[in-house]
Amino acid sequence: MPALLCISQSFPPERTPTAIRAGKLLGRLSREWEIELLTESGAPRSHEGVEVHVVPSRRPRRLLAALRRLHLGKLVEMLLWPDESIFWLVPAIRAGRRLIEQTSPSAIVVFMMPYSSGLAGIALSRLSGLPLVLNLDDSPTCIDMHPQFPTRLHYRLARALEDLYVRCADAVVYVSQANLESVRARNPPDSATKLHLVRYGADPGEQPPASAPPGGRFEAVYVGAMSGWWTLIGRHEPAGAIKRLYAAWMRLGRHVRVALETHSPAILGGAMLDALAEHPDWSGQLGLTVYDNAYPASLIERALAAAGLDGVVRASDPVPHEHVAHVLAAADLLFLALPNRSPETRGGRISAKTYEYLMTDRPILAAVPRGESWDYLTGKPGVWLVDPDDRPGMRAIVEELVLAKRAGAPLAFDRGELREELSYDTRAQEFERAIRAAIEHARAAREPPRRA
Q1: Residues of the chain with pLDDT under 70
Q2: 48 CB-near residues (< 8 Å, 6+ apart)
Q3: DSSP 288
Q4: Closest to 110 measured CA to CA, from 169, 192, 158
Q5: How far apart are CA 155 and CA 390, in angstroms?
């Protein structure tokens, strides 16, 4: 059985999108490949046929934590490039060289974010001569994930790093068609064959049987780390002179590519309040729950109280990934939100939870700007698309769904035709094709040119 050396600094049991994607794909690839994985997370173990080797980082955690407590995070952001995972680079290279000597893999596969892991992959590929596959869950220059940088120099460095990855790798995997096309446009034509699209996926086996949510209360849910809480506080609590001065310091020198405006969860909560004002008899029977949120409960409570939304919006404790499907199946509405942006710019991000939502039969309200996410969701069964700031539009959708439920006919949608396309079995097949293409690209590059 052929072998792969894989690198993913984040890996299950961590719940980052990169960890989940790497775990799902490699678990399936392990049926045909012997996989050795280098990671920083957890303990040495076997995960679905993947042998996991833990490499500790040399990150100065106490120093970095102290700088952030002193509100000097701006300096950390400016000085550590491409990110603070750079401290894992040398230990990962050393561990990778040992594993290459022991296992003789056919290729090296790197999952990012964070982005320093790609440098480890390049170094190991150069030292060993092995084909290199770089998986970019989010492009370093994705305008949605990276709308601004500490300085213009940092933006130029990010572009240069991504272009370096394209030059040095034998295959580069993107999850976004828009980001892939952007990179293709600025690189030499002969790089085009290296670029592959393998989107995020979902596991059909995790989905419980479809059923109407119980009870009379109408419950919308959002699963993921929803941001916008500080923005919400800033709109309703005037900042003092010191906070304004600190905000000005944080903005100083920043290179802003596009101004993004986060409306969630306030905008859906506001739409629900509007619906309750029109239908007073719905009081206590309508709400939004944010699951798996990464922000402190005290901050969330403060933000919701400041905006007057604490009666309809609440945040729940983190949900283990294996329980997410049950949370989704018990909802009346699945909420998806991306930051608003200027109309002349188009985003290249599709939230990873989009695919998990589409594996259910639940109604989906997608508050997203024009871009790849909007295009991808257009025409999908049971998906309502609105602009991120369209509060009246959201209210109308909520009212339609609540009335249907109260009439005893809650809406559900058959998305069975999407299940195979979205499944990680299909994604693993696509990813394996990229690996084999990389091996073939490296083999062809080593062959001497044929004489005419």
Answers
A1: 205-215, 262-264, 292-293, 321, 343-344, 448-452
A2: 23, 26, 27, 30
A3: E
A4: 169
A5: 32
pLDDT reported for residue 137: 86
If you ran DSSP here, which 8-state letter would residue 202 be given? B
Domain 205-406 adopts which CATH fold? Rossmann fold (3.40.50)
Q: Edge to edge, what strands does the sheet with 313-315 contain?
A: 313-315, 286-291, 218-223, 333-337, 364-367, 383-386
What is the pTM for the complete model shown?
0.89
What would the pLDDT profile of 405-435 be if each residue is shown by its tens digit?
A: 999 889 999 998 999 999 999 999 999 999 9
Residue for token pair 């994930």: 145
**Residue 305 structure tokens:** 């109280």
Task: Using alpha carbons only, give the angle 39, 79, 230 rounded to the nearest 5 degrees.
Answer: 80
- CA dist 295 to 69, 311, 312, Å? 16, 19, 18
CATH for 3-201+424-446, options being 3.30.470.20, 3.40.50.2000, 3.40.630.40, 3.90.550.10: 3.40.50.2000
